[in-house]
Design goal:
By secondary structure, the protein is of the alpha+beta class. It is about 45% helix and about 20% strand. It has two domains: about 140 residues, Jelly Rolls; about 80 residues, Orthogonal Bundle (Arc Repressor Mutant, subunit A), CATH 1.10.10.10. It is elongated.
Amino acid sequence: MSKKSRPVSTTDEKFSVLRHHPLFRDLERSVLDQLCRYVKTRVVKRGATIFSKGDPGNSLFAVSSGTVKIGVSSSDGRDAIFNLIGVGEIFGEIALLDGHARTADAIATTDCILLMIDRREFIPFLQSQPMLAMKFIELLCTRLRWISEHVEQIILPHLPGRLAKALIRLADKRQPTATNHKMTITQLEISQMIGMSRESINKQLRIWAERKWVRLERGGIVMLDKGALEAIAETGSEIEAG
C-alpha cells in the first residue's frame, strides 16, 4: 500500500480526518481528542461488503479514502443503489443511532480506508455533546431529503431527465462550486441508481459527449456543461437515445 493510501493510524491523522468533517469541525480540541481515542481503522478491498441489510448497527463509519455504495439487492439478483459515499463523508448513522438493524448494504466500490467508532462508545459521547447531537439531526434531515429526491428522480418517465438529475445531484454533492465536475462512478452504478439499463445509459451519455456536455472517462464521468443538463432535468426529457 502506498504512503498516500496507507491506513490512518496515528491520533494526529485521525484528528485531521474528523476535523475536516462538518459534523465534528466545531468541536473543541480536547473533545475531538477524546473522540479520536475511540476511532479504529479498517481497510477494505474493492467489492468487499462492509455490512449487510439486517446486520446489527454497532458502528459509525467515515470514509478516509475510496468510495462506498449504499443499496439493496432483490431476490432475483438485481441491485439498487441509494447513495455513493465518498471521502470525508460518514455512513451507518441510522442504525447506529436507533440501535436497530442496518437498513441497506454497504459495499466498497474501490479499495477503501474507513474510520470506525463503536456504538457503545459513541452514544455516551454524543449524549455529552448537545451541539453534535443537533448536527446529527441535521444530517438525518439531509439524508431524508436525498431519499425524497431519489424517489422523485426514478419516477421521471424519460431516461434523459432521470440521468441528468442523477448526475447533477452527484456533482452538487461532491463539488458544488466547481466548473467541471468529475464523478467517479461507472455506468452500471448509474443504471442501478436510476433504474434504467446500462446500455441505455451508455447511448445517452455518448449523445451528450458528442454535444460536449459530458466527457466519458474510464471509471468516471466529467460534467462539462451543467446548464444543459439542468435544462433537461427541469423539463424531464429531450430527444432520447435509440
